[in-house]
């Protein structure tokens, strides 16, 4: 079975631009979470979606937004990019609901801001 | 609020030596605990988890971790490491499998020949 897939794998943008990152969860998983991992740090929680509803939001500015589609895939959007947004963006999926299954991560999208 | 402290940012060891990566957490509620491993230019892979039951949990590649509630710790151990174990290891906590993960800053394990 395919794992969590993310696209693109790498992306270069300039300050002020907008970016959209995409994530396809493991088949059957209904919950998707996004994390930002700055170089040398642990991942920081950005958003969680379950059954297309936002379930949680981390301490990130409103420039960050996300949504989940009926097929449970998800997009993360970042507007007005800053140099500090350079990071590895990780998507994780889990079954959701009452399942005790842990979150499984994709390989991430590496975003570089020039 | 939850937090995770990984006490060592880097741990260098020789091949076949034992290793312990330390993790302490703080939380006002019952928690689930995880260790993830990250190889260069890759995402996170789940190494092992504690949800409930036995406080000693094991992975398929020889790692084990013990949940100690009184010391709020979840240290990762391996009796004999291999070169291929070189990676970044992250301890994480959540209040449920379907809730956000709070990660430590990571420990870079470097296994030298």
Please tell me what the overall shape of chain A is.
Answer: globular
- By secondary-structure content and strand pairing, the structural class of chain B works out as mainly beta
Sheet of most strands of chain B: 6 strands, mixed
Integer count of domains of chain B = 1
Mean pLDDT of chain B: 91
What percentage of residues of chain B falls in helices of 4 or more residues? under 10%
CATH architecture of chain A: Sandwich
Q: How would you classify the helix and strand content of chain A by structural class?
A: mainly beta
The poorly predicted ranges of chain A are none
The number of strands of chain B is: 12
- Given the structure, what is the number of helices of chain B? 0
Summarize the biggest pleated sheet of chain A. Answer: 7 strands, mixed
The number of helical segments of chain A is: 0
What is the CATH class of chain B?
Answer: Mainly Beta
End-to-end separation of chain A: 37 Å
How many structural domains are formed by the residues of chain A?
1
- Most extensive contact: A-B, 30 and 24 residues
What gyration radius of chain A follows from the Cα positions, in whole Å? 13 Å
**What is the fold named in CATH at topology level of chain B?**
Immunoglobulin-like
- What's the CATH H-level superfamily name of chain A? Immunoglobulins
Query: Uncertain spans of chain B, ≥5 residues at pLDDT below 50?
Result: none
């Amino acid at each position: 079975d395919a794992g969590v897939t993310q696209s693109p794998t790498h992306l270069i943008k300039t300050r002020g631009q907008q970016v959209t990152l995409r994530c396809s969860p493991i088949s059957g998983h209904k919950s998707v979470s996004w994390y930002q991992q700055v170089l040398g740090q642990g991942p920081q929680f950005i958003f969680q979606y379950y059954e297309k509803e936002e379930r949680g939001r981390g301490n990130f500015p409103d420039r960050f937004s996300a949504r989940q589609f009926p097929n449970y895939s998800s997009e993360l959007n970042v507007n007005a990019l800053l140099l500090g947004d350079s990071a590895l963006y990780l998507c994780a999926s889990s079954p959701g609901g009452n399942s005790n299954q842990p979150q499984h991560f994709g390989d991430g999208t590496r975003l570089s801001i020039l | 609020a939850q937090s995770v402290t990984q006490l060592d940012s880097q741990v260098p060891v020789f091949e076949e030596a034992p290793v312990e990566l330390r993790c302490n957490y703080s939380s006002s509620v019952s928690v689930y605990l995880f260790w993830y491993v990250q190889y260069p230019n890759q995402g996170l892979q789940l190494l092992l988890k504690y949800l409930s039951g036995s406080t000693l949990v094991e992975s398929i590649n020889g790692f084990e971790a013990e949940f100690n509630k009184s010391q709020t710790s979840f240290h990762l151990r391996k009796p004999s490491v291999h070169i291929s174990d070189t990676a970044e290891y992250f301890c994480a906590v959540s209040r449920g499998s379907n809730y956000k993960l709070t990660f430590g800053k990571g420990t870079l394990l470097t296994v030298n020949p």
